[in-house]
Specification:
Elements: H1 9-13, E1 27-33, H2 41-51, E2 55-59, H3 61-66, H4 68-76, E3 80-83, H5 96-114, E4 120-121, H6 130-136, E5 141-142, E6 147-148, H7 158-168, E7 174-178, H8 184-200, E8 204-205
Parallel strand pairs: 1-2, 1-7, 1-8, 2-3, 4-5, 6-7
Helix pairs in contact: 2-8, 7-8
GO cellular component, one term: membrane
Keywords: Hydrolase, Metal-binding
Pfam family, one: Polysacc_deac_1
Length: 208
């Protein structure tokens, strides 16, 4: 079963992370993971520009290294960048020092290629635990999400997905999308309608 809204007990149990922002402000925080990827990240940029909305891109360092011009375009368009590790590593699958080194490698390549020294971090797969978070929280705000699009899922019913994320969006929601190739087709079917919905409901967007 796919939960489009993170069950409320999860943020209460894992309260050292940012799951959402101020529930009293009619603002939504759009996030895109895994880029920058040509033909996907730039598609998202175009849509955001058309709707005059801002987003935060949690970038994989290797993709920044391969596509520095696209990473810089994200900055030039007024969007934010966060750290998503260099090799899209899952915490717990390797020694802590290896993971932390990978995060640092990502920070350095983003700084080198864009001039941005990131202070937000999102763990790939949303997977992180105590030892990892204790180290990373000394430098980064660890950002998770409360609404997820499942745009990376093969066979996704995009009509259902769009309706679900609209239904669960509320003030302060952090909404997760992906600007990667395997998400492209689903993203093209979900994102335009979702941005139109945000506009029609009077939501503002902001950077994390």
């Amino acid at each position: 079963m796919q939960f489009y809204k993170v069950p409320g007990i999860i943020p209460r149990l894992f309260n050292g992370y940012t799951w959402h922002k101020d529930r009293n402000k009619k603002t939504v925080y759009l996030t895109f993971d895994d880029g920058p990827v040509p033909s996907v990240s730039d598609y998202v940029l175009k849509l955001l520009d058309e709707h005059e909305m801002k987003a935060t891109y949690f970038m994989v360092g290797d993709n920044v290294y391969k596509n520095p011009a696209l990473a810089n375009e994200v900055i030039q368009e007024g969007h934010g960048i966060g750290n998503h590790t260099y090799h899209h590593l899952r915490a717990g699958k390797m020694p802590l020092t290896v993971y932390l080194d990978d995060v640092e490698q990502c920070r350095k390549v983003i700084l080198e290629k864009t001039g941005v020294d990131t202070n937000t971090f999102r763990p790939p797969y949303g997977w992180i635990n105590g030892p990892y978070s204790r180290h990373l929280s000394q430098r980064y705000e660890i950002i998770l999400w409360d609404v997820i699009s499942w745009d990376f899922k093969s066979g996704l019913n995009t009509g259902v997905a769009l309706n679900k994320i609209k239904e669960h969006t509320e003030n302060g929601s952090i909404v997760l999308f992906h600007d990667q190739l395997k998400s492209k087709n689903n993203l093209q079917k979900i994102l335009p309608g979702y941005l139109e919905y945000l506009s029609s409901q009077g939501f503002q967007t902001a950077l994390l």
